[in-house]
Predict the structure.
Amino acid sequence: MLHNVYGPNCDFSPGKSQVIPSLIFKSLTQPSEKPSIVWGSGTLLREFLHVDDLGQAVVFALENWDPSAMNAPLDNSGVPLNFLNVGSGKDISIKDFSKKIAQYSGFDGKIAWDSTKPDGTPKKQLDCKRLNNLGWNAQINLDEGLKETISNYMANIKHT
């Protein structure tokens, strides 16, 4: 299951989209005089991965990783792994993340936190050291990726 993967052509459907497209949609469609409501406290830490980095990681793993090789990454019990975590290795609070999206989308209204909604797991960050040790690292930083995703949305989606 992939989570917090984003980039051009995300599903921006209200009520169905994940955190990035949902916040981008709100920032671009919410009138500035009305607050943009975000669930929870904003203190959660999340890791995000650009879809192009995910694609590169898959190709890299196919070309450079053989789970049956003598030098294949092992789990903590010394058993060869049949899967590798893929992530950016960096996390950010939802509050700081929401501010970035507002800034890059031009939303100058208030962001309000709905603490009646659940926060969820305090921190979700993958341990990607095994894939990193094979030579792969994410290349697209969050700021670049968000700007590209917002530009793609603005160029391809008509606001109602």
